[in-house]
Amino acid sequence: MKDNFIQVADITDIDLNQSVSVEVGGKAILICNTENGVFAVEDRCTHTDIPLCGGQIVGNLISCPVHGAVFDLSDGSVQAPPAFEDLETFEVKIEDTSISVKYLK
After folding, report:
1. What's the DSSP call for residue 11?
2. Domains of the chain, start order
3. Which of 27, 51, 77, 95 counts the most CB atoms within 10 A of its CB?
4. Cis amide linkage into residue 82, ω under 30° from 0
5. Concatenated DSSP letters of 34-89
């Protein structure tokens, strides 16, 4: 099966410890530029189904901008409530400054 990587952003457009939301196949995906690399997770807090875009990023962690749930960007795992369901994650590929995510329909 062929890998389905879709170009979604340019690393030069995302400041360190910031994120940008992109839409791929009707799904909002959050691209996060951290000190430890670039990560892609669903742009949806699993606690209240609101966007995580704009949440504070520290290391590999992002906090929901509304209720403060914390997720690990490297594997989508919940690190602090009120969320209890992990985030979906997406494989990232960087070529030069282009960021692509693997998306399976």
Report:
1. G
2. 5-102 (2.102.10.10)
3. 51
4. yes
5. ETTEEEEEESS-TTTS---TT--EETTEEE-TTT--EEETTT--EEETT--SPPPE
24-30 CB contacts, 8 Å cutoff, 24+ apart:
24/101, 24/103, 25/103, 25/105, 27/103, 29/90, 29/101, 29/103, 30/62
Nearest to 8 by CA among 35, 38, 37, 34: 38
DSSP lists the bridge partners of residue 30 as 21, 41
CA dist list (Å): 91 to 62, 99, 102? 18, 10, 5
pLDDT score of 30 = 98
Tens digit of pLDDT at every position of the chain (105 positions): 357 899 999 999 999 999 999 999 899 999 999 999 999 999 999 999 999 999 999 999 999 999 999 999 999 999 999 999 999 999 999 999 999 999 876
